[in-house]
Amino acid sequence: MTEKNKVTTKPGEKGFSLILLIIGILVLIESIRMFMEEPTLSSYGALPLFLSCSIVILMLKIILVEYRNNGTNKEKVSLTNSIISVKNYVFTKDIVF
Question: What does the domain layout of the chain look like in residue ranges?
Fold first, then answer.
C-alpha cells in the first residue's frame, strides 16, 4: 500500500506565490540600492537586504517544491481564467467590499 499523498492546492496559490516572488525581487533590488550607498553591516540597507534575500530564497523554495509535487497535473487553463482565480483567491469577498 504505497500510495503517494497528493497535495491539493487551491486555484490561486501558484499565482500568489509568483506575485510574492516578484514583490520580493523588487524589494531586493531596492535594498541593494540602499546598501550600495553605505556598504557596511551597520548601514540602513543591511536589514532590508537580509530580509528580502530571505523572502526570495524561501519563495523560490516554495515554488520549486509546489511544482515538483504537482508536476504531473497538466491542466489547460487560459490566462484569463488563471488571473481571475488568483484574484478571487487573494481578494476574497470577506476582505474586499
Answer: 13-68
